[in-house]
Amino acid sequence: MNTNDVAGELQGRHIVLGLSGGAACFKAAELCRLLVKAGASVQVVMTEAACQFITPVAMQALSGRPVYVSQWDARPGNNMAHINLSREADALIVAPASADFIAQLAQGRAGELLPLMCLARPIERVPLLIAPAMNREMWAHPATQRNLRQVAQDGAQVLGVACGDQACGETGDGRMLEARELADELIAFFTPKVLAGQRVLVTAGPTFEAIDPVRGITNLSSGKMGFAVARAAREAGAEVTLIAGPVSLPTPRGVRRIDVVSALDMHEAGVDIAQSAHIFIATAAVADWRPATAAAHKIKKDGSGEAPQLGFVENPDILAEIAHSPRAQSGELFCVGFAAESQDLQANAQAKRVRKGVPLLVANIGPATFGKDDNALLLVDDEGVSDLPRASKRVLAQQLVAEIARRVSGFAA
Ligand code: CTP
Known about the structure:
Layout: E1 14-19, H1 25-37, E2 41-46, H2 56-63, H3 81-88, E3 91-97, H4 99-107, H5 113-120, E4 128-132, H6 136-140, H7 142-153, E5 157-158, E6 162-165, E7 171-175, H8 179-190, E8 199-204, E9 209-212, E10 215-217, H9 224-235, E11 239-244, E12 256-259, H10 263-274, E13 279-282, E14 289-291, E15 312-314, H11 318-323, H12 326-329, E16 334-341, H13 345-356, E17 360-365, H14 366-369, E18 374-381, E19 384-392, H15 393-412
Parallel strand pairs: 1-2, 1-3, 3-4, 4-5, 8-11, 8-13, 11-12, 13-16, 16-17
Antiparallel strand pairs: 6-7, 9-10, 14-15, 17-18, 18-19
Helix pairs in contact: 1-2, 1-8, 3-5, 4-7, 9-15
The structure holds cytidine-5'-triphosphate.
Cytidine-5'-triphosphate is lined by residues 203, 263, 282, 284-286, 288, 315, 317-319, 337-340, 356.
């Protein structure tokens, strides 16, 4: 399974997807497809203006349900589409939300079905998310900004916007987020906020230890597990900083990423960020040694057939150092280590937990998981060992975050 897959992420959820007028309607088609793929049932509601950009036929085909446009639609037995549609929804998401639609929301107007339905929703029970999309001048206009503040104050969650090329040919703020980003925001929205208020530091990926400007020593860690953990922690409400070694993975939404190369860089950044973190999850496969000296220029063959002699020095143990810091020792910082072993998983993991001085150690067989999308984990703490059976790294990351949250609330109590 691909970790980027959305399958099952919104299983059993009923989403009302609203479209107001804008060129970004084409992205709403992809969003609809993704929500359905994620297991949600999707009911599309469109404004008259949206129908100028994409047809209800297309949206019906993608959602598998007839689309609602008019408040006078006589199909519902009680002729109250605005009431029925909003009562059935687990969430309403309006994407794209045009400047005019946001103005209508801000004023509580109900001139057509979509704003009427938003106004009629039970505000405490049915969340409203909006994804604005408009020209950069319209976005920057004080009226739009004023309306956005108002709708946020009235309980809507505003998603985005992005900066970039616009349909009008101009460049700037006001682009709607991509369909995948919106689907991820919706998935995050439904995640229980078990880490709300927590600052989480995650290290991920390999490190690269330079021999000379073109060569170095690294390892096979892909960073996938650490990135999945960072994403799951953010979805659980944490403020997440991800210190990443050299990997080519996209940054999870809402996560602050610091790219580093060597173990020394990762150590410097890690020690700094850990000073204000509540949870440190060390998933990185940090190189244990680095060449004693990195040559300033490429080391050349000298024709003798002799290989250069490389001396090594040990890198600082980032996890052990942070786990032995006063904040970790006093319980202000909860440290979680990973162990990549090649044999005797349990015995090695238990010994490593003690050596690193961490309350929780997560062990796996390194060669069996590096670069893959799934894994199986063994959790070791002072109460013993427990398994997280083989699953995608996405699912394991979610389970691990729940395990950490449970221990942290116990820890703080
Ligand atoms: N770790 C670290 N800094 C290092 C080495 C490891 O922060 N210099 C962290 C890893 O991120 C991981 C844990 O320590 O959370 C264990 O890493 P691992 O490579 O399994 O263990 P080592 O410390 O290298 O021990 P050994 O070589 O004996 O397996």
